[in-house]
């Protein structure tokens, strides 16, 4: 049987699942406010009034918790020259030809891209959200700025949700990945075939 390697510690996993919980709560309350056809989602946060009251606070809390993940993983998500090669071969991966992919460290180019999409969409959501947060901040902001902010807020939410869908799909599609975030460990075989450079480093350690 393949040996297990530690990929995430308890704190990292707690941080991750707390972000997921807040993503669901802020997402449901936000979608409920976005369109009447999605109003049923306000049930998740206790009805329409509570969705309106809680949504901005849940959003701020989600960004703050994501900051925890950001600080932990930003170094491993920096783009390097090797990522260019991975990007070139991406078509091969989608065809199922894993062997054509170059060796990668802790994260591959696709994961890094999703990480930066998370970070960028969350910062746009935070800044624009403050601009039209009534009654605290919106009265001090010109209406033209509020209009643009509302539009950018919706676009950033769309990008975030799409990125999360890609993130979940990849976690399920690459067999053996989910356990990294549920149990904290991955098999040696998983590490060797998906993150060769990270695997070599882990073996040296
Ligand atoms: C049900 C939803 C989710 C599932 C099943 C899930 C699953 C996972 C798994 C399995 C990993 C480990 C990947 C690896 O080590 O190769 C991971 C890492 C990570 N996840 Fe999630 N995730 C979910 C939602 C989210 C959300 C909503 C966010 C933030 C908005 C997020 C942010 C991250 C980050 C920052 C990492 C570290 C890896 C990286 O930097 O690329 N996840 N997730």
Question: According to CATH, what is the topology of the largest domain?
Answer: Fumarate Reductase Cytochrome B subunit
* Morphology: elongated
The portion of residues assigned to helices is 55-70%
Per DSSP, what share of the residues sits in E-state strands of 2 or more residues? Answer: under 5%
What is the number of E strands?
A: 2
Which CATH C-level class of the largest domain is it?
Mainly Alpha
CATH superfamily of the largest domain: Transmembrane di-heme cytochromes, Chain C
Mean pLDDT: 97
Profile the largest sheet. 2 strands, antiparallel
Spatial extent as radius of gyration: 20 Å
Based on the structure given, which CATH architecture of the largest domain is correct? Up-down Bundle
Please state how the strands of the largest beta sheet are arranged side by side: 1-2
What bound compounds does this protein have?
protoporphyrin IX containing FE
Q: Which consecutive residue ranges, at least 5 long each, have pLDDT under 50?
A: none
**Terminal CA distance:** 21 Å
Query: How many domain units?
Result: 2
List the helices and strands in order.
EHHHHHHHEHH
Computed structural class? mainly alpha
Q: Number of helical segments?
A: 9
How would you describe this protein?
There is one protein chain. With 205 residues, the chain is mainly α. It folds into two domains: 8-73, no CATH class; 78-205, Up-down Bundle (Fumarate Reductase Cytochrome B subunit), CATH 1.20.950.20. The protein contains nine helices and two strands, in the order βαααααααβαα. It has a two-stranded antiparallel sheet. The longest helix has 31 residues, at 143-173. The radius of gyration is 20 Å and the shape is elongated. 23% of the residues are buried. The mean pLDDT is 97. Bound molecules: protoporphyrin IX containing FE.
């Amino acid at each position: 049987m393949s040996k297990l390697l530690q990929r995430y510690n308890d704190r990292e996993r707690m941080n991750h699942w707390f972000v997921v919980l807040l993503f669901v709560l802020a997402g449901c309350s936000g979608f409920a406010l976005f369109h009447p056809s999605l109003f049923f989602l306000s049930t998740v946060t206790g009805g329409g009034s509570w969705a309106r009251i809680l949504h901005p606070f849940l959003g701020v809390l989600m960004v703050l918790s994501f900051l925890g993940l950001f600080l932990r993983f930003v170094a491993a998500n920096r783009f390097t020259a090797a990522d260019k090669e991975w990007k070139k071969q991406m078509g091969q991966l989608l065809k199922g030809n894993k062997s054509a992919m170059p060796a990668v460290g802790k994260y591959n180019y696709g994961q890094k891209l999703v990480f930066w999409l998370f970070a960028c969409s969350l910062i746009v959501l935070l800044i624009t959200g403050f601009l039209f947060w009534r009654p605290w901040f919106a009265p001090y902001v010109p209406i033209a700025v509020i209009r643009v902010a509302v539009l950018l807020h919706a676009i950033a939410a769309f990008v975030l949700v799409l990125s999360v869908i890609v993130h979940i799909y990849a976690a399920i599609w690459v067999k053996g990945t989910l356990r990294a975030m549920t149990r904290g460990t991955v098999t040696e075989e998983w590490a060797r075939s998906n993150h060769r450079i990270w695997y070599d480093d882990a073996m040296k350690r």
